[in-house]
Amino acid sequence: MSEGQAGQVSQAPEGRTPANKQASWPRRLLRWIERVWSNPIVFKELRARVRGWRAAVILIAQLVVMSCFASIIYYSVSESATSMGSVTVGQMMGQALFYSTYMLLLVVVVFLSPAFTAGTISGERERKTLDLLITTLIPTRSLVLGKLISALAYMVLLILIALPIQSLALMFGGVTLAEMLIGTLILLVTALVMGSVGVFISSLMKSSIWSTVLTYATILLMTIGLPIVVSILSGVLATMFYDHFEEMSWVSQAILIYTGGFLLCTNPFAVAVTSKLVEDAEDTLFFWTTQVYSTQGNAHSILLVSPWVVYVLYGIAASAVLIACTVLVLRRKRG
Amino acid sequence: MSTIIELRNLTHRYGSLTAVNDISLQIEEGSIFGFIGPNGAGKTTTMRILATLLRPTSGDARVGGCSALKDPRGVRQQIGYMPDFFGVYNEMTVWEYLDFFAACYHIPASRRRGMIDDLLQLVDLEHRRGDYVDSLSRGMKQRLCLARTLAHDPKVLILDEPASGLDPRARIEIRELLRELQAMGKTIFFSSHILLEVAEICTTIGIIEAGKLVACGSLDEIQSHQHARRVTISVTGREEQALELVRSVPGVLDVQVAGRGERIALQVDFEGGDDRQAAILARLVQSGVPVVGFEEAKIELEDVFMQVTRGIVT
What we know:
The complex is a heterodimer of chains A (335) and B (314). The longest helix of chain A is centred in the last third of the chain and has 34 residues. Chain A starts with 24 loop residues before the first helix and ends with a helix. Chain A is globular. Chain A is built from twelve helices and two strands. Chain A is mostly helical and 335 residues long. Chain B is α/β, with parallel strands linked by helices and 314 residues long. Chain B contains eleven helices and 14 strands. Chain B is 36% helix and 30% strand. In chain B, the strands form three sheets. A six-stranded mixed beta sheet of chain B has the order 6-7-8-3-9-10, sandwiched between helices. A four-stranded antiparallel beta sheet of chain B has the order 2-1-4-5, covered by helices on one side. Chains A and B meet through helix 2 and helix 6 of A and helix 2 and helix 3 of B.
């Protein structure tokens, strides 16, 4: 670069140059979006996905089911509800509408996200197109991220089209905007984690059917199996330690609380429910402190974090690890 | 002319099976190399190693000075690879398919449009530009895949059985296309088990059997390396005497009476050079055999193939 040009920011050819360290955040974000947009895999996958009849049918089915569900809730609540204490019927209606449609949406996200990714790499293998891709110059990371981003883009669409139904709750009251935003964040992170599980497993498998089966088995284990194991285990531990809890040092108590809490925070359903419980009980969306007592009876306060915060961090970390593993698996095959 | 593809003691084993056994060869820039051999001889394995899809057990494959082992990216930049069985994305149109792969080779969007038009023109698919890939016939898909290998203007094309499963017309079209590509300066490494196809367009040939390269060079070179030469002698009579006379010439391996009728044709296989060929004729003429024809028979690639391979399949 000559002296005269030194002040200019060098033009990135097709978003391939490493990010300039001096670049400001908005500029970096813009560059990142440009890079995602110029990722041929994202473009190709999205085009193929939206082109088929399946995409439209799923969107319509999703809207129909959620609308019907919301209507049923509306009528049953309006028939039966009477105001209790400070909670008005309107607020009850808002809460009932929001929580029920939210849980339905969470189930859809948990079980639909892997469907879009579980066959994504094994499918290329089955259709004998993976070899063609591997011999091109596309970086393995772009390949994997492209697959994931295109699947997530569709899930985001599913989550977004459900928002109007959910925001009915805002009109009735009883649900705050912050709750809704946090709820949506949990949905997005769930889609990210479930999608990453699918991409990772599909990179290992030769057949899409087996990849899908294994992905769903993993997800059932994560969302249903793990809570069962944890609740049984915690039940056993509780009966064992119930009388001795007081005798434990405060550090062991804290470790027990953190471990149990973390396990709880890996499950999207538990996270959604407990985040609300914490909000109601502790009146916080982020942090609160609780007291544990040492054997001498001294109080120690420990910091606790709302489950959704832990879940978001855990989800991002878990999916980063899964993506890294997928890239490694494919790189190894790529030589 | 410089060497562009080089295999050095290339060996690949699948468990206890040796698919490629110590193959070394060099291919000149701008040539069409025909890789022939029976099914299961190791053609596809060799080509997959060259295409950086398989790591050899030992040895190295180099394209334009880059090692497929140490610098696979460098190799990928220079090659266009077409596997023997390949899939296409069905939910895409012809131009989208080419656009996608061009983007995978980092060709800027501004250059892709014109390039796709050129490629479609080259493989004669302009009229199917906006059609879905799965509506194409097999021959068209093959041509589309060939166009795809050209997206980044590679120097070398590695084509595994480019004409397999095609009808005669599509086969000829592919052959013409390969000629055209050679004229554009590409080096073409392709495999086939159809000998005629190879003999017609290749400048160099490699014959592989049971993982070993049993013959390599231009068709003429391979033929001249063969021990046996063949002449067809036509006589109008005294064939018994002729047979005996020819048999007595040293170096003659086999004499067969090929045709009967007014003229009797003798097919003589012998070892040695032109002087021996002359000696055979001289002996017949000296003895007064009525020779009316003496013709050097061209040994076809098929004969060479049958001579160098023994029908071993691993």
